[in-house]
Amino acid sequence: MTTTQARTEPGDAHDTEAHAGHTPEAGAGHQGGHGPHGYSAQKDAHLKRLRRIEGQIRGLQRMVDEDVYCIDVLTQVSAGTKALQSFALSLLEEHLRHCVAAAAEEGGAELDAKVAEATAAIGRLLRS
User: Fold this and answer.
1) What does residue 62 show for φ and ψ, rounded to 5 degrees?
2) CATH T-level topology, domain 42-127
3) Which of 32, 34, 46, 57 has the fewest CB neighbours in a 10 Å radius?
4) Residues 13, 94, 6, CA angle at the centre, nearest 5°?
5) pTM of the predicted structure, to 2 decimals
């Protein structure tokens, strides 16, 4: 596979349903993988941050390829994990401020769906 080819598997960032963390029927008014979301205003900063994390992961591959000492590799794994967790928390905060807050204004089933969706996402973060 070349660097310009993308492979999509369930759970990959390109897998819209898995990336969004829900199924198509989850939540009334769900916008799918497209449209303005809570992170849209910070999209460039998020992409920059994700590219930096991607570089950390590629660095891990290089370290293993170069037979770097185990503990040094584990230290970098920990740094990459922390960077992803920090990104996830930032994204979650934006989701709560934008998507859940908008649903709170509508109330009813939309609010219930967004709260359930956010709760499930928090649960996944805690288990990771």
Assistant:
1) -65, -40
2) Methane Monooxygenase Hydroxylase; Chain G, domain 1 (1.20.58)
3) 34
4) 10
5) 0.67
